[in-house]
Write a structure and sequence with these properties.
Structural class: alpha/beta
Number of helices: 5
Largest sheet: 5 strands, parallel
CATH topology: Rossmann fold
Strand order of the largest sheet: 2-1-3-4-5
Strand content: 15-25%
Number of domains: 1
C-alpha cells in the first residue's frame, strides 16, 4: 500500500527524495500532472502528498483544494523552486502541512516528510 504520493513535473529529478524514502521503507507513487494525481487520490488514501508547485500550471491553490476535497485528512507538502509572495500566500491560505522552498535543501524537506508521516502513524 502506498502511503506517500508525489505530483511533480516530468523533467524534475526526485532521486534524492526517492532514495531517502526507500531507506526509510516508505512506499511512494509518482505522477507527473495534478489531474492524474487527483484521480489517484480519489481511488486510494495517501498519508502524505508532496505537490510540486511547478506541476500545477492551472493554479496551485485550485490543485490543493481538489486534493483536499478527495481526502481532507491527507497532509500536503508543497515544494517549489521559485518562491514568490503571491505563491506562498495562495499556498498558505489552503492550510497545507508544509511549504518548502527547494533552495533550503533536501534535509529540510526530509524533516517535514518524517514529521508528517510520524503524525499519521506511518513511520
Amino acid at each position: 500500500m502506498y502511503c506517500l504520493f508525489i505530483v511533480t513535473p516530468q523533467n524534475v529529478s526526485n532521486s534524492e527524495l526517492e532514495q531517502f524514502l526507500h531507506v526509510n521503507h516508505v512506499d511512494c507513487e509518482i505522477v507527473y500532472d495534478p489531474f492524474t494525481g487527483i484521480q489517484r487520490v480519489q481511488e486510494q488514501h495517501f498519508d502524505l502528498i508532496i505537490l510540486d508547485a511547478e506541476a500545477c500550471t492551472a493554479g496551485i491553490d485550485r490543485a490543493i483544494r481538489l486534493l483536499k476535497g478527495c481526502d481532507p485528512y491527507t497532509r500536503i507538502i508543497v515544494k517549489t523552486n521559485i518562491n514568490t509572495r503571491d505563491l506562498e500566500s495562495s499556498v498558505r491560505k489552503e492550510q497545507v502541512f508544509y511549504y518548502h522552498v527547494n533552495s533550503l535543501g533536501l534535509n529540510d524537506l526530509q524533516i517535514a516528510v518524517k514529521s508528517a508521516l510520524q503524525l499519521s502513524g506511518t513511520l
